[in-house]
Amino acid sequence: MHDLNSFRTLKRRHEISPAHITALTDLVKFGKDRIEFSLSEAFKKSVEEYNEKVKQNRYVLRNLIDAVCYLGKQELAFRGHDEGEESENKGNYKELLSLFAKRDDIFRHHLETSTVFSGVSSVIQNDIIEAISNFMIKEIKNELHRTKFVSIIIDETSDVSNKEQLSTVLRYVTQEGNIVERFIRFNDVSADRSAVSLSNHVIPFINEFSCGDKLIAQTYDGGAVMAGQHGGLQKLIKDEFPQAMFIHCYAHQLNLILQQSLNHIKECKVFFQTLSGFASFFSKSPKRTAALDKAVQRRLPSVAPTRWLYSGRLVGLGVISTVHSDLMKLFDDMKDNVKEWDCETRMCAKGFYTTLAEFDFNFLLNVFSSILPQAEVVFQILQKKTADIALCSDHIQNFHSTLQCLRNDFENIWSKSQNDALFEPSQKRIRITNVGNDKSDSYRRLFYEIVDTFMTLVKSRFSEIKNFEFLSLLDFDNFEKFGKLFPITAFQSLVKTYGKHFDCIKLKTELTVLYKSPIHTDNSLFNFHKLLRNSGLHVAYEETFKLSELILTIPATSVSVERSFSALKRIKTYQRNTQSQERLSSLSLMSIEKGLLNSMMSQGNFYDSIIDIFDAKLNRRIDLRYK
Description:
This protein has helices at about 1-5, 5-15, 20-30, 35-40, 40-75, 90-100, 105-115, 120-145, 195-210, 225, 235-240, 250-265, 265-285, 285-295, 315, 320, 325-335, 345-355, 360-380, 390-405, 410-420, 440-460, 480-485, 490-500, 505-515, 525-535, 540-555, 560-570, 580-590, 595-600, 605-615; strands at about 150-160, 165-175, 180-190, 215-220, 245-250. By secondary structure, it is of the alpha/beta class. It has a five-stranded mixed beta sheet, sandwiched between helices. Strand 2 and strand 3 (about 180-190) form a beta hairpin.
């Protein structure tokens, strides 16, 4: 009994004794000390020297990786025209390594003394680029493994060497609640661009990333090969993955609406052709541009037929209407100034002055100034990665409503046009006889024709919105109404399309509770999704949280693919058109997904992981693995 009462004192005395501390140390080290080290001091020393050499080699490789990452993110060429020792410019890669060496004695010593592995060859460059790309793809696959839904976005374009490049992007919501559209790769599809051939690229790709069961949508442009209902790519993908609903890129459709509306009406076509002449007139001469800068103090946006909303930039941004009087004064000065301007400039200026003074031009300018700014707002929304299909559909509907309201605004536009113009309305505008003496009648018909054409095309081209009736389930404006009458039709739309992904009975119960006691947030589905996650309510509203993630995952546009085309043109230039397809895709991945790369570089295991991938490919002539 006495011993038990003293147990704590005895235990404490033993814990602080040298014998206990020594025994505990041996226990911790047990199995960690190599037996051969105990048997041979020489062997131990040789291993330590070898590992020190590996440490230095890995340090050198870190510098090479930094150089590759920098050039890749900045889309800069690696190689120079002449990389010889006597060259004044050995190329960005070698010059960057030389810069590192000036501030790093270990690295400089390596570059000066290495005869086996200097790290400056094109082969080593390619292997490091490939290792970084593989590590990034591995991280993307890890993100995909943790997400519930995935959408695929695809489009194709020709590069500088006239190869047809298929760009592939995946959209999903990360575990942190962020919407991402990850570029994956370019594929050369020049040999065969048929729907079957494209599907032979896409289907193995989906299987490679193990996202077939999560694939809920596919988004392309409206080309027959891509969007054909019977033999197009979207049909072949849907046959393989039935949940992958096809969505025609909203931005592409809106652009087609604007183009078709303008080409459908002769007066509009002539108007925009004239409008594009303003920017061309000034861009052809530095002297004219200088005069524009001095008189107007702003440049006219350049136009390009391949740019979305290209025709409306001058109108939609309010440029011409804002500087109307200044332009007229400038053209008036140009057309009569024989000493300052040549004959061609004076003649063009005279024509532009007359155009700006005409009633017809001012009338159409005011009409489109009422339409195109709204279209520009929709375009800005559509081009955001965080824009979900519900948000985009709402803006499309608002654009249609704006057009409906505009039909009642003819008198205001007519009155403003009369004030802006110096010339009276033209009688030639009357296209039907016996219309009376009211000059506004023919312009009224033209006005209605323009607005109605826009409205009709918006309604027809976005008719597929009805397939996404379930989007209204999380329409915050309707929560009060849904609290009184549950939206059965919208719910059945979800069950029919994506029912296998949900516990539908539980989801209906959660929505019923949500509608009657709504969670206070703004009208952003993205913020609602974030709120559920950050507040822990995603546990209570598990199926609703999943529904919000599904809606956020469905893409409305293919703008991320269009952005990848821009990167392609910067990376594969006329002077860099011989690089391999693998190198092109890897460099594009590093450039387009530089945000992901920066995040990965901040992790402690980044360099070691890249080096392990780099070393695993071949038996390197440099020691990189510790013993």
